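I hope you will forgive my troubling you with a question about protein structure. Here, with my thanks, is the record as I have it:
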Amino acid sequence: MEEKLQEQLIEGRHPVREALRAGRPLRRILVGKGVHVHGLLQEILEEAKRRGIVVQFVDRRRLDQISRTGAHQSIIALAAPRPTVPLEEILRSVGDRPPFLVALDGIQDPHNLGSIIRTAEVAGAHGVIIPKRRAAGLTPAVAKASSGAVEYIPVAVVTNLARTLEELKAQGFWIVGADPEATTNYTDAMMTPPIVLVIGGEGKGLSRLVREHCDILVKIPMFGHVGSLNAAVAAGILIYEVVRQRERVLK
């Protein structure tokens, strides 16, 4: 029973608030007894009351026991697991602007995945694509690391990422992969939508098949002694290069 419960947790004040703002169905909200109710927490409880969501004050040790992130900030919401969506649904919902997708090839660290999802959402990407295997899923740790961004940006899970990229290429997408061994600096490459920006996993980078399906590979130049960037940091740099080029074209 406890394992089933843990799969439905939204932990922390910002993630819970964003779940409420996004209209996510919540079964209950657990709050630590004795916590000072003010600011963001007060806002959450008032919104929960307006929506008729049950709020229970429980011993903080109870929150510690069920927490999966270790950073619940004295509040945990119980909800149905966050659903992923079919890629076709993301493409249908794009609207008038040229589509911008972020594909992740083997990102296994939930904190990196959550951080990339957060950056993609803030930058106005239309969706995130993750593979079904050998990658982090939409866990409570990912939701926590995204600061609630998973409530707003759709995430599609695909069985074969290389095949998916090939299909998107056939639909007119420009496929740009991040590779530290590439010969082209990211600032010298065309990175305007419709685009799929592909980020490789920690340590291994892009898989061979995924690399082969990219139209171009780009690198972020390194000038220090450390040979690589954290995947989430690299993703942030490249995502905002897409934003820069996109906004220049739209002006």
Remarks:
- The radius of gyration is 20 Å.
